[in-house]
Amino acid sequence: MGLPVEKTELTGVKKQKKRYFRKHEDLYEVLQKIKLWPSRSGTLHGIRTITRKGAFIEFVTHCGNKVRIKNSKTSRVSRWLRNKWYVRACSQCKVPGWKLEKFSSTSFQ
Ligand SMILES: [Zn+2]
């Protein structure tokens, strides 16, 4: 399943299309598309794999963090993603610049 996602992302880069999400989009859907997760300390990590487990979301970051959060539109993660709050990108995750640019041009309406 990894390859088609990569292709989609590459196509997105070429087009430089602005990405939109509904303001109250399901958190799982947002994380699955953005593939970025801001930790509580303000570090933005890249998501390697993500799965939905009932009311929870489980994912593994590129730096090896195993995270389990509640799939909630009103959670801290939802809010931080909508406001694009983060302090720095994780150096271990090696989040590419284009991905950060795409994230900053993402609109939540
Ligand atoms: Zn990381």
Mean of the pLDDT scores? 87
Please report the number of helical segments: 4
Label the structural class: alpha/beta
Ligands: zinc ion
The radius of gyration computed from the alpha-carbon positions, rounded to a whole number of angstroms, is 13 Å
Helix content: 25-40%
Which sheet architecture does the biggest sheet show? 5 strands, mixed
Shape: globular
Question: Could you give the order of the helices and strands?
Answer: HEHEEEEHEHE
Q: Which range does the strand content fall in?
A: 25-35%
- Low-pLDDT sequence parts: 1-8
- β-strand number: 7
Describe the model.
With 109 residues, the protein is α/β, with parallel strands linked by helices. The protein has a domain at 23-85. 35% of the residues lie in helices and 28% in strands. The strands form two sheets. Strands 2, 3, 4, 5 and 6 form a five-stranded mixed beta sheet that branches. A two-stranded parallel sheet has the order 1-7. Residues 1-8 have low confidence and may be disordered. Zinc ion binds next to loops.
